[in-house]
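Researcher: Next sequence.
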Amino acid sequence: DHRDLHLCDRRQRQMCIRDRVSTQSTGTYASSFADARVPDAYERLIFDVLRGDHNLFVRDDELLASWKIFTPLLHELEAQKIEPVTYKFGSRGPEEADELLRRNGFVYSDLYEWKKSSKASL
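Model: Next structure:
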């Protein structure tokens, strides 16, 4: 008896348990566990902090190293008054990013297809 557990879109908190032989059941936490309270992301994060779970946090040495890398970059951007490139919310990003990839020899694979969502999310 072998089963797969597929965890799907976190925003919908959906799960799917499929028996490789014959059956399949899907549903959201809301439908499967109607009486259960699911904490939001910030509640969960605070709970992890209180439990001492550091998986979602960087160590202090990682943080210091990242500031050593990015502080000079941020100062340069500010000194040269470089404006960020804007692009439409929910899009793949700015055309300039694609141009940068092309100039550096990146080639898109046929295995990936960009699917525009009617609901853009962060």
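Model: The chain is about 35% helix and 15% strand. The longest strand covers residues 14-19.
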